[in-house]
């Protein structure tokens, strides 16, 4: 009877999802109970209190997800590392998730975040050398130029006496320009990629739309890769082609480039805007960042931990029955690791629910952990340090042009962010 019930549930799930996709997408907010959406909810910059309660009382708990799916929320720091660091017991293969929700697993977008060893190991070895500090140092002058250009644009816009939207004029263009320059992607396509990058993380605006955004960007990048094959440029795509040739095929290279573009764009953009908001709410922190390079470094590390804009890591699937935090996760079950929850666990330090600009750097998991830790972590740090310090030094009297209570934050998105951040600049 149990197997029959499981087959009926699976059939019903696939039928429902197929119909939802034909109608233009699946709005999971209408399907999932509020408790299942809790890991993606926030009150302003802070995760909702229920997440802290879950971490304290049940750091590994089952989420109330329909369709007969077993989904576990891991919110404790030690438990999170136990999952993220165990690639043998937990799979990252995105095709598994697509099969679970009735979609074609062959449409797996690839890239580092969605594959397992040995494919992941081989691809990461190709990409990692391009993200060493020695290689990244060549981007430093370009990053500073890009930041300076955006500050000039803000100054011109402010001359009209109107507030400037820090998201549109600063947070979005900087990582978009940097990543396009890194990859060798034409910057004139930035508007399209900003849309596609945001859409893929906003899963609850429609699961079909998110997967569609991934497919669109992959198709574009395939064209870029094929063009680079003919005449490799100085960007990351061209460098990989020159050094590895046919050892990596076009689809794999497009998947790597797509992961770098979207992973380095939306996450950094959210950090730039939300980190600026943290400074604007705290004049003393604003002053420290403006006056002291070491303070900038501390601020960036604490902001990464406190904000944890990537709220939940890519889903993992248990390859076998395994115990985590005293709870048995069954083979085939999905595991959602709450990075925003883990980064406020008491094991990292005291009073982690508050922001402390002078806190010594912690071993946070804002960039993930284990084999799938973000390969672009150091590039993100370079951008954040350069952008924050330049912003507050150019505009030392910058203030919010809106009531903080009126700011609109992105809802139910894997990458948290603020929609607009109007400021007055002098």
From TrEMBL:
Q: Does the keyword Metal-binding apply?
A: yes
Coiled-coil segments, which residues?
none
An example molecular function term from Gene Ontology annotations: monooxygenase activity
The answer to whether UniProt assigns keyword Iron to this entry is yes
Give any Pfam family that matches.
Answer: p450
Q: Which domain of life is it from?
A: Bacteria
Q: Where are the transmembrane segments?
A: none
Question: Which PROSITE patterns does this one have?
Answer: CYTOCHROME_P450
Keywords carried by this UniProt record: Heme, Iron, Metal-binding, Monooxygenase, Oxidoreductase
Similarity field: Belongs to the cytochrome P450 family.
Write down what this protein is called.
Cytochrome P450
Q: Which species expresses this protein natively?
A: Prauserella sediminis
